[in-house]
Predict the structure.
Amino acid sequence: MTAIATASPRPVLAEALLPKAATRSGITVLAGAALTAVCAQVALPIPGSPVPVTGQTFAVLVVAAALGPARGLASQGLYLALGVLGLPVFGHGAHGVHVIMGATGGYLVGFLFAALLVGAASRRGADRSIPRELGVLVLASLLIYLMGAGWLAVVTGMTAAQAFSAGVAPFVVGDAVKLGLASVSLPAAWKLAGRSSNVRHDR
């Protein structure tokens, strides 16, 4: 993380692939929120746990890496705001402030902090290297777990061990697959972006 903290800011993936008008207009923020909402509908219940398996985490991490800290945070803030205002964007089409205040609310709020962490790391070039990106994504996931399981314990009255068993343990394997995919796909996207840039310059 020291290398990430001391590296100079760099363009993020969206800035490398898209015209400035797109990244400055808020379109990418809206697209990031929409992608998170779509992935949230890929939800599978887990017996014994009030927290379903969804594609949200993957979307949150990839969007933040692609957009950077400010736009990544804004996209997740917009996603939460849309859900609170009544759009069925949360898992299983849920919506309303009661979702934020309920058992899964800690995970949703954790998305904000995870997006900020991943976006800041990408601004320092972490998403161009598989090992560095994987390390950042693991830290971000741990942050989501900590906030999610902590709030789950508060809301349900579970002990820390019970909250871990219900809100963390069932998702470790699935999240490991998501992190692996994200840590490979983001550097690969940068390679494609570099090749595309070279083609444009050659022409």
About this structure: The chain has a mean pLDDT of 89.
